Amino acid sequence: MSIENISVNKSFGGWHKQYSHHSKSLNCSMQFAIYLPPQMGSGTKVPVLYWLSGLTCTDENVMQKSGIQRIAAELGIAIVAPDTSPRGEDVADDAAYDLGQGAGFYVNATEMPWSKHYQMYDYVVNELPELIEASFPVSDKRAISGHSMGGLGALNIGMLNPERYSSISAFSPISNPVNSPWGQKAFTAYLGEDKANWLNYDPSELMKRATELVPAKVDQGESDNFLVEQLKPEALLAAAESNDYPLMYQLHEGYDHSYYFIASFIEEHLRFHAKHLSQ
Amino acid sequence: MSIENISVNKSFGGWHKQYSHHSKSLNCSMQFAIYLPPQMGSGTKVPVLYWLSGLTCTDENVMQKSGIQRIAAELGIAIVAPDTSPRGEDVADDAAYDLGQGAGFYVNATEMPWSKHYQMYDYVVNELPELIEASFPVSDKRAISGHSMGGLGALNIGMLNPERYSSISAFSPISNPVNSPWGQKAFTAYLGEDKANWLNYDPSELMKRATELVPAKVDQGESDNFLVEQLKPEALLAAAESNDYPLMYQLHEGYDHSYYFIASFIEEHLRFHAKHLSQ
Lengths: 279, 279
What we know:
Chain A is of the alpha/beta class and 279 residues long. Chain A contains 9 helices and 9 strands. The A-B interface holds A 9-13, 16, 64-65, 67, 69-70, 221, 223, 252, 254-256, 258-261, 263-264 and B 9-13, 16, 64-65, 67, 69-70, 221, 223, 252, 254-256, 258-261, 263-264.
């Protein structure tokens, strides 16, 4: 388990760093970013928030555009941002932005040609935290968050692994992918035609049948162009109601799908996670 | 004076908007961004901070990467970010990143082929504020700030127009361009070989001989790769001392030339400007 440092920037008294490493789950070289808050300098082990990005993104989007470091520095939380898919010339791809590289959907693909590398679920749940916890002075307290496709990933991974995450949050998640064009296209490619195999990666399905209930917070912009066709928060809300799931949901007038929305509310998400991480 | 809206994003309760317009001074179509804080909705006229970006940047860098909107929303300040040069197929350019499009240095060029379009000083000092003040509910209270080449622009423009700006600030400015490779290359091209014509665009020269002293704040990262060869804050500090100029200067250990540095200290800059804008 070796990691190679690519870049370093001081930020709010802590450090933003990018690393590359060989991923066993993904069978390729991967890049991730970590924000190390100033508290880590004094030997304190800090908890980690994993941030999963949306379609077309890399580790850089949340680190450059969300302002997350300011609150992470105040609260003493490390932030880890993986890439959104396996990468490289040998890795299967598609010309569309919503399939292949940059669009891993955080699932373990079962279908060829995707299954050789597209094992993002295993990477995010197991390999990456193991690497982070072996390489940096962090505790084993974890939370997970994300945006759009990454909001789907955060909700799925958090609900499927309640023993591993203290809290879950999402901005504008793809909440019911089995009924959205993005989800149907990606799941058909990665998981095959049998829709029974899709249900384990559908946040609304998982929220209906969850038994250990990890606290969740979801924020959605009302002027988001993808709201009606792709995101479908109403399915998540119905699932939460049917299962008494502890979901805090807010719809925000005028906000869209961009990082301008995320930056406006990231502080509330970090304070939500900090409360649960400290319990 | 007509402007055309290109994009709108809600941000911290206010609005980030991009516009294009035909610039008379620059003789081409230009794009700018404005952040309108939530206070403007109630008919309040707010003051404006002009932000000048560095080499290779556009209106987007500060709006996407600095987190400036959070404090602008709190303090009720509009932020205006122009582009860094004239643009377009008809506009003279150079293959290097530090000359031509993206590298206007906020001067009025006198030499061919640059003089036809490269009149960024006039654009920033006169045309753009006139347009902003005619198009948006802002007051005529102005402050100016910027980064690197834009820090040079902010210091020059602020000191040359003390009646127009309440306060000046800069991150990592090119403080003594007549003695730096970036400055010498650009000034030779835009202003010609006679160095006497360069002195009016050199912040350290202007700070030595200023008579109306606009309060200024400069922050510099100690791990900035450009510090010694290109930025030369020591010249600015010597000038301030020789003229008793009200310059607040801070050198920050570990910080580099990136927006990670700017984001870490932008709040202090906005509070500095707010104090002077309200006087």
